Amino acid sequence: MEGKYIKFEKIPKAPNRKTNIYKVITKYDNPEILGSIEWFSRWHKYAFFPCQNTVFETICLNDIINFIDELMEERKNK
Question: Which of 3, 32, 41, 63 pairs with 26 at a CA distance of 20 to 30 A?
Answer without folding.
Answer: 41
